Fold each of these.
Amino acid sequence: MQWNSKTLIFSFISLILIVLLSYNILVYFNFIKTNTNKTNYSILLTKNNFKSSYTPKINFSDRHISEINDVNLSILGRTSIPHIPMILKSQRYYIPLNFISEKLNYTVDNSSGSLIISNNSDKIFLTENSYEKNSKKGSLRGNLINYNNTFYISISDIEVIFDLIAVFNFENKKINLIPNDVKAPNESSSLYNHKIALIRFEDFGCGYSNIVDKNQTKIKIMSNLLYSNGMKFHVSWIPRFKVPLSNFDNDLLTKDDIINVGFVNVLDYMLNKGGEIGLHGYSHQSGNVASGTGEDMSKDTNSTEVETRAVIEKGIDTASALNIPISYYESPHYRATMDQKKIISNYFQFLYEHYDYSKKDNIYKTDDNHLFVPTPLGRISDTVKDTQRIIDKFNEGNPDVLKSFYYHPSTEIDYIDFETNDNKLNINYNPDSPLQRIVKTLKNNKYTSLHIDELIDK
């Protein structure tokens, strides 16, 4: 009788272990469920050992430097600042570190071999490509440049280090550096037992509305909204913007002007405010079709391996030359074929699109390294109906559908007005805008927004 009891207990435990093992194996090879109440969510994530097969042919360090003498700079309302030395590299303007520090009442100390700038309240440590301020560390977007034995710092890095915002005026070739009142969010960790959301700005290239100076500032205001609410987001970037029928071809590697400097400054600003950038094709077009309308990768477009690789590599080279970190790839209109997706997977660990149409509601894991991350909630086209539809999906909280959506920021700019009187950015941002309403919904429902490369087993 005693022996039979032990046998029964042993058999029962063995059965439980077999069931649990079988379940985990099935889940591991299926796509990840977003039931974020499960404590085992993190073990289903992809591994952190992916290495791209490609080394960029163009590097930021090798880009040329030129002197600029026709751009005016205003610092904290002081508009008559003569003879400011300025240089240009990779679509960024730079001014001497000593000059801006003095104007902002900081001192520069390089006596110990370490570069330190400080005032009564702040001490900032600088290296060639990083900064540390109030125990916060970050990467410099333009790096420090030693030009003619003088350290130069980019407008983008001046913004983040000194808590300023740069407002560009293209017509007058003027940049106004004014205080940035955006409040940093409380630090939060990415806990996978919380509800998660993914936000993506779509078709972001230097064309159409993004070549307007006021609209570039409005994108910064949108970034401030997300940043101040602790919302991480993505930017699907079109590196080269073409409208062939209008003879418009904006190649950021060859066309140096204040509009492109302003655009790269916006990319930098978004990165500093919680954005993460990915490649959305190279030109997002072919033939006479405009960027954003056509595609440069499909069964009929650049369909050979050589052509597909060329599209991907030109985008990577542009990002490398401009010192823009990229973390994912999204084929325009999701038109990449399965063969093209396999090629993309040689370059990128994360593909921000569904694996195929039978697996479009959740993350799909093809192997230990790659994730396909879809946008099941779709996009906002009709600002009333689609916004409410997405809000309803967040409220519904279906664990089998990834809470991921995308939005063209050109739509949001219509809800934003601003002026720069009295050395201040005065903003009128309609609280009924799609983005404002969605941010409010995410906060009310306690969603945690993640970057795509946080879906990884670290």
Amino acid sequence: MVVIVGFHESAVAPEGLVNRDPRVGGRLFSATSPFNQVIPANAQIDPRSAEYVKLMIRSKRDKGFVLSVTDWTVPAYFAKSDTTRHDVRISGQPPGAHYDRTFVHDVRRIMRGVPIPDNAKPDPQDDAHLTVIDPANGCEYDLYGAEKTATGWTAKWANATSIPESGIYPYGLSSRATGFSPLAGLIWPAELRSGRIDHALMFAYPYTRSGGPVFPATASDGKTKLAAALPQGARVQLDPTLDLDQLRLTAYERTIAEALQRYGMFLGDTGGALALYAVSPQSFTTNPYVDVLPDEPYVFLDRIPVNKFRVLRTGSQSVQTPLTVVPSSCAQIEVLGRTP
């Protein structure tokens, strides 16, 4: 069992330890995770970058560039030593699994011993995301289509991974269509309050290319055949030479723009608009975004210039991804049989 370090009450981790508690400014996942890699100054730009960005500009014009705060995002709860553990019944409908024709849907499974706090609630929208981190064992439990019923917790899909790892399920089948951890690339309140985000962001986009993912994504729910559609897993950067002082950004836009220049954002899902994600405020006892963000479900990032985006070289799409539930020390997942 992997033991996590760095979940401390203060933002400063003891010498030699890594602070991974994002509630106090820590950073999730390993130092080698793609989400924790600064974009090098000599990064290669995709030959089709201008074409991709032109479609992104169209998307912003149609529906805006937004930060999802209360809707279609991920509530993140933290387990304690006395948190009740539940066996979560899974109906076998993972997002982004339709590219592997050998993967059998509607296989009933059960994930044993998931610590879910009594106050935990899924996101109210249809995807019903819910994630729990257990600091004691360094595990992350990801639920999609989560629901608490009279007989216990159920989910369309559920899986678990270790926080000290990359934040990417190696053979897909996370609760995110691309195989990314649903917390990978999300913005935390502590980051906005400090004015610094030290990781790449994750974004959704209407025009995701069909045909499979590109590295580092391990699955895809890409839906369009448009030539300028982005493959899922693509990394987009705000021009690092852009002078942000000239843009009259709000404080939160400035923090986000600096992260987009330094780390960029990975395409991790198909969505109705060009959108970044903040951790759902329902994860906290009081709204952590008071005086940090406007009190809106979606915060528009109007002053961040999408026309100054550039797409880094994507590599080739994986036409068919080998989707597999990888055994994990975090949870035992048992197959029960086909859904009637």
Amino acid sequence: MARMVALQQNQLSFSPLASSLSDFSGTRLHSQIQLKRKAWQPKAGFYVSASSTKKILIMGGTRFIGVFMSRLLVKEGHQVTLFTRGKAPIAQQLPGESDSDFADFSSKILHLKGDRQDFEFVKSSLAAERFDVVYDINGREAVEVEPIITALPNLEQYIYCSSAGVYLKSDLLPHSEEDAVDPKSRHKGKLETESLLEAKGVNWTSIRPVYIYGPLNYNPVEEWFFHRLKAGRPIPIPNSGMQITQLGHVKDLAKAFITVLGNDKASREVFNISGSKYVTFDGLARACAKAGGFPAPEIIHYNPKEFDFGKKKAFPFRDQHFFASVDKAKHVLGLEPEFGLVEGLADSYNLDFGRGTYRKEADFTTDDIILGKSLVTA
């Protein structure tokens, strides 16, 4: 049974947890399980060397990006604390992770329990701890960030997870870091946060991912396709299917977050992070099939204007070209994505969906509307 140590002081709770998580190398996992279908072999695990040891706070960290990033930081010897509301376990064993690796990680990770909307608690608790670096991977509004900056006047670096969704829609692609941004986008809070960090004179770095995929993804990106492929259903794709988009693997994103730590070249800079290749919607459907060892899918194109889906979303991507240049990250930071698209999708499938550990059950309601079929109720 995992060892748990907890220290509670007022609302503050620190706990080096022990459960069971470990190496999330796709290669190791593939050797441990037998898949019914032939799937592409994922690449080996990744490892990045960061700078000197830091006392690091991660805002969030128990779901997707933070799970992989925190393991790299702990492996590098940093003292890592997750700030969460405590609704999810601070550590849980990943597929393919050995018991010993997980026990090592969970014995070192710390927990600061609280609600980041409770600004007074944030200020008092963080001021008492004096963190060197903050990784903010769940901040959405500038008002959530100001108390953190106030509490940590000697902060060395604030590393922020923004979004490529901040760019103004344009006919000229790919988006680059110098492109115009959209102050009315649904990600405007992230833009305002970047502006706040600059205005406060903080040593900040902002990462702007495009679409993120990989094991533990809670957004219906690759899972949306895998559900349909597993069920042997056609894949409905809006309009021509030639819309171009871009996906970046979560492990490559975690690597980018580690690379900017203590990196002078990343000071007060914005970086797009994603895969090197762009892909059409139809191409993504075929890539998912190849990654999971499924037959080539039947693809159905439809005009979304001809349907009323109510509040349901019929397709997980925005119906437009949407991709960004990662040249700056390559040239300035020396970053090169490890995962090609099919290899990355295979890593996700083998470590997650292929094991039956997807986030949501399949819902083909909108598919049936598109295909002109009646729903079959049990």
Amino acid sequence: MATKTCILQILTLISISCLLPLANSIHFNYPTVFNFGDSNSDTGNLVSAGIETLAPPNGQSYFKTPSGRYCDGRLIVDFLMDAMDLPFLNAYLDSVGMPSFRKGCNFAAAGATILPASPTSVCPFSFGVQVSQFLRFKARVLELLAKGKKFDKYLPTEDFFGKGLYMFDIGQNDIAGAFYSKTLDQILASIPTILAEFETGIKRLYDQGARNFWIHNTGPVGCLTQNVAKFGTDPSKLDEQGCVSAHNQAAKTFNLQLHALSKKLQGQYTDANVTYVDIFSIKSSLIANYSKNGFEQPIMACCGYGGPPLNYDSQISCGQTKVLNGSSVTAKGCSDSSEYVSWDGIHYTEAANQFVSSKILTGIYSDPPFSDQMPFLLNLKF
């Protein structure tokens, strides 16, 4: 049902795009992609680092086995790579199976924050560390390329680093995680510090020759099952969609300042392309109009424990079996994940990721927009 809805929407938007004026825009002919982020785009780094393991039913809808992704199938980054006719990104830390990095590399890690990790952080691979990993990756690639052609099919060429697309989807954990120890006012006051750290990372990449930046803002974290379960027990704390109002207010404020930073970078780096993508609006619209968009459950988790209304228990994650209150229980998947927006209470289902991706690719949620690139949608594989 969700797939049919997406196809209809894409076809409609293609026809509408013929009426839109051409815009200054990016072009989807990148030879390689370098991605930085958290679990929304992690294709296996945290699992490859040995910090966490993922059990079935993770991966059930597409890979048919856990793939290092916190999802039943593909992530937004997977659909975007497909749209650019590029292979899925291998995780930087995945050393088994002779991964090819010629068309790109993924540095995103589940639990990552923009701010430096603390001793109690879930993930040590904060944004600054991911940028440092990229710098190490680039230096090592150039060393190997200088030794001859035997590594060529596995590594990007030197010019790919300047021509490639640098994608970012990070900040959700800085906002959502802060609510466990800070007030809303304290979180709002911390946003400039968070974004200063992000700007520093962008500058380091620019100084290394990066010129094409694609920046996702953060989604409506107040609508994540985990946050509704923890912070939404008082109905007065929820909005009309059943989402935690304070969390979404923080996300909106973060996004306003991230957008302003993106505009600043657009003016500062005149030889670069900086594209800001409004993920918040897409995801908020999906949740507010879930039924019209082909979904049946906007907030309840597909894979979890506890049953309706949320099917989420923070003590047991998707696929795990634990003893709770003296009984052995398992967080199981639902019968049809395409009916759900939330996969495990924190991350989206493949169906929801596909919906979000189809909206991103219209170009109308981006600044600058890229509506003149709509014909490439005809090549979509999903």
